[in-house]
Amino acid sequence: MKIIRPPPEHERATARVARFEREVQATASLSHPNTVRVFDSGVTEDGRCYYAMDLLTGRDLGQILEREGSITPARAAHLIRQACPPVAA
Predict the structure, then answer these.
(1) Per-domain residue ranges for the chain?
(2) How would you class 51 by CB atoms within 10 Å of its CB: exposed for 0-12, middle for 13-18, buried for 19 or more?
(3) What strand order describes the sheet that includes 2-4?
(4) pTM attached to this predicted model
(5) Phi and psi at residue 42, in whole multiples of 5°?
(6) I need a surface site. Which of 2, 46, 57, 68 has the fewest CB within 10 A?
(7) Residue 41: phi, psi to the nearest 5?
(8) With a cut of 70, which residues of the chain have pLDDT below it?
(9) Could you give the residue ranges of the DSSP H alpha helices within the chain?
């Protein structure tokens, strides 16, 4: 689940909520084995925006970089191929 705290009543907060909503829509539109599915989204009673998604196991890119340091171009290409397999013609 991803949650953002309630926005104060000013323009920057409105932009933050709009950006969060675009993120939810973009994530929900994805259909790929290496991406999460969005199951629900909304606003809690105390005004927090949220979306609920799959819980994935494994390491994310940040964790890989933290553990391995910089990665080789071949390793980067391997990771990218997992997220972006070729489309059949």
Answers:
(1) 1-57, 58-89
(2) buried
(3) 2-4, 49-53, 38-43
(4) 0.63
(5) 165, -155
(6) 57
(7) -155, 160
(8) 6-8, 10-12, 85, 88-89
(9) 11-29, 61-68, 73-83
